[in-house]
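Entry 14. Ran structure prediction on the chain below.
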Amino acid sequence: MKKILTLCLYMLMPLGLFAQQFVEGTSYYLPRTAIQFNVLVERTTTEPGELCMYAERFLKKKDVAQQSATQFRIVGIDINCLGIRDTSKFFTPNMDAKHSIVSLKINDDGIILAVNDQPKEQTERTPFVPAPKKPALNPHDYMNQDILAAGSSAKTAELAAQDIYDIRESRSQLARGQADFMPKDGEQLKLMLANLDTQEQALLQLFEGVTERDTMEAVFTYVPDREVQRHVLFRFSKRLGLLDEDDLAGEPYYVGIEDLHAMPSNTAVVEDGKKSKDDANIYVTMPGKIRLTFSRSEQQLLTKELYAAQFGKTAPLDNELFGKKLFTRVVYNPITGSVEEIKTEMMKK
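Output, structure tokens:
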């Protein structure tokens, strides 16, 4: 069983898609089907304010954080499949006068996409990209002269709290239209209210501290090669976040694979498996169906049925499809190696 782990720390952003690139080739691989788990983990970091011990005394705020803390939680799990080259299934087609093979399209990994045709547009899930963060507020930039000149932390807290109450009173008077200096229009009012909000938020950080949340994406690429009931993909801890599969500090998350022993039919595949020196060497995969489960402890989080190339079989397409009488176009599924589309036409004499 193979597993590839890629861990990326990014801010949560909408998912996008990008087109898979392809090139002209003379040899090709058939794919193995890999399963990609995209796990979204939210990290919450709390830093206490420098005046946190006075929050209840001056602002009547209870349960204010008194020390630094970091917590993690899984907020989403998504599964998608991708094809990776199967190095045991490498072929070179006979592109000669005896065969009507004029074009072979492969992707960047060498996996076959099409013969004598253009591949279908393939899309893949893009990784997260960092979202711009708002610049952090510095409470000291919003302190008046009296607060900055206070001789003790208690006095600083008292004056800062009084300033917060004054800001709230000014905002209330503006909202009721009772301020001494009312703005001339709605835009100016909006700007004044926003400035008051920023001042209050900055000063409140002295007491409440700062809580930041960002979302990380962990990408686990898992390549099954046999049935398995409970394979540990990773472990997770609310205090430590995502952990390696052998780190007992976290709770295990399991992958299960069941072979359903079913394959899609494909009438174009040679049944007798005979091979001759004039073979076209155009092979396809008849993928097998599997049932994937993902769970933690005794709780099943999701289940999905899908086709995987390595649970099926490989066979050549009929040589007559690429002889002198027929011109055949074949489009592959790059994830399973199966035929998505096949078209034939008689060659002109």
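The chain is about 15% helix and 45% strand. Will compare against last week's run tomorrow.
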